[in-house]
Design goal:
This protein is of the alpha/beta class and 887 residues long. It starts with 11 loop residues before the first strand and ends in a 25-residue tail after the last helix.
């Protein structure tokens, strides 16, 4: 057991930095404090023996780079790599090892061309003064200096630290004893690392272990966030030592601003606006505007306010929103440009650094920890400023700063302590070691990179075998110096890949591992959101009506919660940024509407020039709104023309064999479906096209892709639109409906084989002819829907243009299913009543159907991640929906 009560005055304790707070707490708990007691790490103690100031590691890397530049003409193999921070850092570490172990660089290998270049580089960099010089020289001084006032905590020492520890011990230093009698050792396994951590937490709870007596060592750093999550859930207090070194927010902001100076482009401007430094009015609008239009922020934003052409494709409301967005973005731009100018066009590098430091300092003025980081950065900049002459030097600085780490003070040192294998911690009664698989244990640090273990074998440096045995010996002493030891590992990863325990662990125990005792009890506790009848009526009912469109009710069926957010709370979906591909479908829709209105039945034979003019007019209007995608729109203009002409060609075939004429386009309607005696649905919408022959009507609905009408989806209320149009039109026009059909405006992709091979002898190859291809094309692009009157010859006298309609052997045009619209209307009244009653009863469950979440703008609110819910028919189907004799 560690005893620090008898330390003499002016003693020194050498221990890893992350243990200083714990050791100091231990001193205070065992005595009233010690006069002159100081804490050092071993390396920092050796450095403290010298009064000479050394340049920082970052400054040394800059000096290295300048030296390498002088060598660049004589290098070939490492000419490019030698100037990179990664290479220079490896050189720095290797030179440190040479100096600490007093190895002459002249002894380096020259057996290959690459080794010759490496030796030349090391000989050039070696004379530059580094920490290694001080460590070696002070080591020599310590050989003749008493160390009786020094107390060393038994940590996991590197081979360099072990050398210095042995030297201090030989000069009278004392090794502290923090060992306990090992009373029990347990070897567990679990299915995966989450269950392993669950088992550890449950063991602590079940055995009522005091968290202050628990130490947890993880062999895999990815365990940390899971441990924190699970321990917080079990309310086990803990102190996380693995995150003692963390990235700095201030440093990230510093790097972002310097990166913007280097490039001054769109990709580096957006992070500047988003990093939390600039606080101006309408900043969010500026960010959205720049995501749509990659404008020069130093030039005014006004092009939307100068638009001359109107578009039938871009919704007027969307255009108004864009104009409002531009006005707000311009307001933010005028505020932020004066702040960006000193960064984009600084007077000097010194003024650039001062500006950036001031901006970042102001952004963290209430965070002392981050301010201390900026002070360190400022000190570094003062040191290296003479070395920065070009933008390339700043880019080099940014690369170095990406690895800059800060040491953060612990907010608490109470509870179970969590550390990694390489860190170690104070001995506690119970020691849990997690994740001891072959990949993670014993975490021996091997030499890698350019100066790998093979290269180190050529110099008088401690061999890998010696270092490995030392590491293993220290590790075994570390894990067994507690009363109760618990070692565990997972059997596999989340993906199902099997894992094995480390051989070194298996050799410790003479028995196989047992499963971690884990208690699992799962009770479904899904909280379904609901509304009272009164609140539902307040939200959805106005003047005894639930107003909306058919698509809004289909949204309710797909996801009631989405309907509640959009139409109950009135949460508008965020504006879609940029040019939407749906505009092309809207353009095709507009072209058909215009041509049928202008040419009637002959719309498929409209002059090419007329079509060109219509497309050109719309594209020109879109170009004024989206000038950044001029080339894209020109390409789209060509594609939409070709695609639309092909669509007209297919529709011409249909029109030539149909007696129906275009009658109404974009027919607006209002229609009520009663829910109960007091409330009804008030539906409002537009029907794309209604054709007419005598007193019979046909409903056509344009779609941007192929779509079919399914009985299952209709009865489940997932496809209400087309048949509701039929019911509404029948009553408003007082005419019969022959059918309702989807018209696809898309050239669908088809699978077309080049030919077929007969398997009977003689084997022959028959190439697919153009007639077969044309047949496949027409079948793929046929109209799709439901027919309702047995006079189909007036709609399609060939029976080839509508799915489900055919010409039989008696040359009659028939369909496999002929639906009864009167019966369907009864069904639909019942369906609308069911939907309405669910809404009035406050059913807003988060139960999305398949694909309901794919493009949902509200997913961040509900955060649903489960399996989709099946939609069953709201009413049972019977043969009454068909005309007699049809099924």
């Amino acid at each position: 057991m560690l005893n620090l009560s008898n330390l003499p005055i002016n003693s020194i304790i050498l221990a890893p930095t992350h243990l200083h707070s714990f050791l100091n707490q231990k001193v205070l708990s065992q005595s009233n404090g010690k006069i002159g007691l100081r804490f050092y790490s071993i390396a920092s103690y050796l450095q403290s023996q010298s009064l000479n100031d050394l340049p920082s590691t970052e400054a040394i890397l800059f000096t290295y780079r300048d030296k390498i530049k002088e060598l660049s003409t004589s290098l070939s193999i490492y000419k490019e790599a030698a100037l990179t921070p990664a290479f220079l850092k490896q050189c720095y570490q290797f030179i440190q090892d040479l100096k600490i172990w007093n190895i002459s660089p002249e002894s380096l290998l020259e057996d290959t061309a690459s080794n010759k270049e490496l030796k030349k580089i090391i000989l050039t960099l070696y004379p530059i003064h580094t920490t290694g010089n001080i460590l070696h020289s002070n080591e020599v001084l310590l050989q003749h200096k008493s160390a009786t006032h020094i107390y060393i905590y038994p940590s996991l020492f590197s081979c360099e630290e072990k050398k210095w520890v042995d030297l201090l011990l030989s000069n009278g230093a004392h090794m502290l004893d923090d060992s306990m009698e090992n009373k029990s050792s347990n070897f567990y396994h679990a299915l995966n690392k989450r269950q392993e951590i669950e088992g550890c937490a449950q063991y602590i709870i079940e055995h009522q272990l005091d968290a202050e007596d628990v130490a947890i060592t993880i062999a895999d750093a990815t365990y940390t966030p899971i441990i924190k999550q699970i321990f917080q859930r079990y309310e086990i207090p803990f102190c996380d030592l693995t995150y003692n070194n963390k990235s700095s927010i201030a440093l990230q902001r510093f790097n972002i601003l310097l990166s913007y100076f280097l490039f001054c482009d769109y990709d580096h401007l957006l992070p500047c606006l988003d990093c939390g430094i600039f606080h101006v009015d309408h900043l969010t609008s500026l960010q959205k505007y720049l995501q749509i239009y990659q404008k020069d922020i130093f030039q005014p934003f006004h092009h939307l306010q100068e638009i001359k052409h109107t578009s039938h494709v871009l919704d007027e409301n969307d255009l108004e929103k864009l104009i409002d967005l531009e006005i707000e973005a311009e307001d933010a731009r005028t505020q932020i440009v004066p702040l960006l100018h000193p960064i984009a066009q600084p007077k000097s590098f010194e003024s650039l650094f001062l500006t950036v430091l001031q901006y970042v300092f102001d952004s963290v003025q209430n965070n002392y920890q981050e301010q201390s980081v900026l002070i360190q950065v400022q000190s570094l900049l003062q040191e290296i400023l003479p070395l920065i002459q070009t933008n390339t030097d700043i880019q080099f600085l940014l690369t170095i700063l990406n690895d800059f780490r800060i040491s953060s003070s612990l907010s608490s040192i109470q509870g179970a302590t969590i550390s990694t294998l390489s860190q170690g911690q104070l001995t506690k009664t119970h020691h849990f070691i997690l994740g001891t698989t072959q990949n993670n244990y014993p975490a021996f640090p091997i030499k890698s990179g350019i100066f790998n273990e093979t290269y180190y074998q050529s110099i008088p440096y401690p061999t890998m075998e010696k270092r490995y045995q030392q590491h293993l010996q220290q590790l075994q002493q570390y894990i067994f110096q507690c009363n109760h030891l618990y070692i565990s590992y997972p059997l596999g990863t989340y993906e199902g890949k099997s894992l094995e325990p480390a051989l070194e662990i298996e050799q410790i125990f003479n028995h196989p591992s047992i499963v971690y005792p884990l208690q699992e009890s799962y009770e479904s506790n899904i909280q379904k959101p609901y509304l009272s009848n009164a609140i539902a009526s307040e939200l959805f009912v106005k003047d005894h009506k639930i107003k909306g469109s058919i698509s809004s009710l289909e949204r309710y069926i797909r996801c009631p919660f989405s309907y509640f957010l959009r139409y109950g709370l009135g949460l508008k979906e965020p504006m879609k940024l940029g040019f939407s591909d749906s505009y092309m479908g809207t353009l095709s829709h507009y072209l058909l509407e215009t041509l049928t209105s202008t040419y009637g039945k002959q719309y498929t034979k409209a002059p090419i020039q007329k079509i060109d003019d219509l497309i050109q007019s719309e594209i020109q209007a879109l170009q004024e709104v989206f000038p950044d995608i001029h080339d894209h729109l020109q390409t789209m203009q060509t594609r939409i023309k070709e695609s639309f002409l092909q669509t007209l060609s297919r529709l011409q075939e249909f029109e030539e064999h149909s007696q129906f004429q275009p009658y109404l386009q974009e027919k607006e309607f209002y229609y009520n479906f009663p829910i109960n005696d007091d409330v009804s649905f008030s539906l409002h919408g537009f029907i794309d096209r209604i054709d007419k022959y005598q007193d019979i009507l046909c409903i056509l609905d344009y779609k941007s892709s192929a779509k079919s009408l399914s009985e299952t989806n209709v009865l489940a209320a997932l496809q209400l639109q087309l048949l509701t149009y039929s019911i509404v039109t029948k009553h408003l026009e007082n005419k019969d409906i022959i059918g309702a059909y989807y018209v696809s405006l898309k050239n669908e992709n088809i699978t077309h084989s080049a030919g077929k091979i007969t398997r009977r002898k003689p084997i022959t190859y028959n190439e697919t002819g153009p007639d077969e291809l044309n047949t496949l094309l027409y079948n793929t692009h046929r109209l799709n829907g439901w027919s309702m009157i047995n006079k189909l010859s007036i709609l399609d006298d060939q029976g080839t243009h509508i799915t489900g309609i055919r010409c039989n052997k008696d040359e009659e045009i028939v369909t496999s299913k002929l639906y009864n619209l009167d019966t369907l209307e009864i069904y639909f009244h019942e369906i609308y009543q069911i939907i309405g009653n669910r809404i009035l009863n406050g059913d807003i469950a988060i139960e999305p159907s398949e694909h309901a979440c794919d493009y949902c703008a509200y997913h961040e609110i509900c955060r649903f991640h489960g399996l989709p819910f099946d939609r069953k028919p709201l009413i049972e189907k019977d043969n009454a929906i068909y005309w007699k004799g049809e099924n």
